[in-house]
Amino acid sequence: MFKLIENLTAWWPVKVLEPDNDNPGSLKEETFEVEFVIRSREETKAHDKQRTELLKQLPVADDYRKDQAGATAKAEKIGAKVEAHDRKMDHLVIKNWRGVFDAKENPVPFSAAALDMALNHERIRVGINRAYDEAVSNDKARVGNSNA
Fold first, then answer.
1. What is the torsion angle, in degrees rounded to the nearest 10, for the CA atoms of residue 58, residue 113, residue 148 and residue 39?
2. Is the distance from CB of 10 to CB of 135 less than 8 angstroms?
3. Does residue 144 sit within a domain?
4. What is the pLDDT along the chain (148 residues), one digit of tens a residue?
5. Quick one: which of 1, 14, 28, 37 could link to 131 by a disulfide (CB 3.0–4.6 Å)?
6. How many Å apart are CA 22 and CA 24, to the nearest integer?
7. What is the pTM of this model?
8. What's the rounded Cα separation, in Å, for the pair 102 and 105?
9. What SS3 state is found at 7?
10. Is 26 helix (H, G, I), strand (E, B) or coil?
11. How many domains, the chain?
């Protein structure tokens, strides 16, 4: 039965590639689950528009030719704003997680600080972004294969 839910959430697997210490030079895939909040079109459009406006402020090649140091400083400043903007959106779409453990195999409870720590690792951030893209995708080919 289809239910129209204003604040839809969905648990989704997140796949993270990590170096495999048992097989030097190889990667292994680890998985945990994230509970995503599926945001409305209005919310995601507003986020995308704000992000686009920030990206438009980045220096272009001509700016670097005229003032390399100034353009580099501006790029770093705008890059930090884009990162903060993306982090804010991450906190809006990630509600919870399960299957996350510390080095001693103790469960790591979900919190804003723990999420920030995870997002500081590129491999985890990439895995979460891919999982969210899958969760909101309208890819009909996956419907029959979905375990969500």
1. -50
2. yes
3. no
4. 988 888 899 999 999 999 999 999 999 999 999 999 998 888 889 999 999 999 999 999 999 999 999 999 999 999 999 999 999 999 999 999 999 999 999 999 999 999 999 999 999 999 999 999 999 887 754 555 555 4
5. 14
6. 6
7. 0.81
8. 5
9. coil
10. coil
11. 1
